[in-house]
Write a structure and sequence with these properties.
Helices cover 33% and strands 29% of the residues. A 6-stranded antiparallel barrel has the order 1-2-3-6-5-4. The protein is of the alpha+beta class. The protein has a single domain, classed as Roll (Pnp Oxidase, Chain A).
Length: 147
């Protein structure tokens, strides 16, 4: 099965993401927003994108609601990146979770951001049965952040 990727539309790329990234760079985190910087897997140049940082029981995660995005592909190759909010820049390493580790994290993510990202989960919400959440886990990469 081909990796799922829902490409951001014009509105997201040009209207939504730029102000979120701008505010986050200036220290105003919107519901946990961060600017993720990761080196491009081909160019080696730093790429930036706003992301939602999720914390569950003291452990931090990056979830890719759109599937196997460019930042996911780059992070898989690089294995590390930077998270920024304001002047605070944190370097980190990641461990990608297996599908069987994802359901609880996806539930927490959907509880917090369903209003923003629910459209990318094909009707799955935080109250979905375990088998439905397990199936959704195959479409959404999740990374545990390790400082």
């Amino acid at each position: 099965m081909a990796a799922r990727y829902i490409k951001p539309n014009w509105f997201t790329r040009n209207i939504f993401n730029p102000p979120v990234a701008w505010l986050t760079r200036r220290g105003l985190s919107l519901w946990g927003s961060r600017v993720l910087s990761v080196k491009g897997r081909v160019s080696g140049e730093w790429r930036e994108v706003p992301v939602n940082l999720l914390t569950v029981e003291g452990v931090r995660y990056l979830v890719a609601p759109r599937g196997t995005t460019q930042w996911v592909r780059n992070l898989r190759v690089a294995g590390s990146g930077r998270l920024r909010v304001g002047r605070r820049v944190e370097e980190f390493r990641v461990v990608e979770l297996n599908d069987d580790e994802k359901p609880a994290i996806l539930r927490a993510y959907l509880r917090r951001w369903r209003w923003e990202v629910g459209q990318f989960f094909d009707g799955v919400n935080a109250k979905a049965p375990d088998d439905v959440m397990a199936e959704a886990s195959t479409r959404h990469p999740v990374f545990r952040i390790e400082s």
